[in-house]
Amino acid sequence: MIIASPAKKELAIQLQVLQPPAQPVSSTQNTKNASSTFSFAHEYNRQHQDIVTFTKRDKARNNDWVSQVFGSVDVEELMVISTPALASPCQAFISDSTVFLSAPVILQDGCFQSCITHLLELAEEKTGCENLVVVIDRRNLDTEFKNLLRAYMYLGFQMVNPSVYGQEPGFALLGYEL
């Protein structure tokens, strides 16, 4: 991944790998598409829950967001992430210690920074991955794209060169080293 990283002082912080909590919210098993759902209490507000649903990807379906962005990519499992600040759940998948996340739609005005920071913390603490890449569909964002890009870059994201992951031209990738 081509992302410049500033000189950082090394800290030893133990990561928590995403594992089911003692009491999962629900767990369903199908013969074709097994899915499981886990909830995690917010660190600062225990009343709010982050809900992460894992689903086996149906490779016969070629119209999911992974196929639209990357074409034919070998992804076995998809995640749907729902937090209280999101208007709709984000879709994600993990590949080579990188979390790929569809651009979240923020529910409340003025909550962009806190919502993105929370998604970064969730990705870092629960997956153990090294990078987060946000996928932005810029085909429908004429004037808003520059403002959205500026907001992500303010939080430390950087544009990822299209040659790195080979996404379709209508999508922009913004990377963040966790």
From TrEMBL:
InterPro entries in alphabetical order: Acyl_CoA_acyltransferase, ODC_AZ, ODC_AZ_sf
Parts forming coiled coils: none
Gene Ontology biological process terms from the UniProt entry: positive regulation of protein catabolic process; viral translational frameshifting
GO annotations of cellular component type: cytoplasm; nucleus
Gene3D superfamilies in the cross-refs: 3.40.630.60
Molecular function per GO: ornithine decarboxylase inhibitor activity
The protein's assembly and partners: Interacts with ODC and thereby sterically blocks ODC homodimerization.
Family note: Belongs to the ODC antizyme family.
Role, per record: Ornithine decarboxylase (ODC) antizyme protein that negatively regulates ODC activity and intracellular polyamine biosynthesis in response to increased intracellular polyamine levels. Binds to ODC monomers, inhibiting the assembly of the functional ODC homodimer, and targets the monomers for ubiquitin-independent proteolytic destruction by the 26S proteasome.
Protein name: Ornithine decarboxylase antizyme
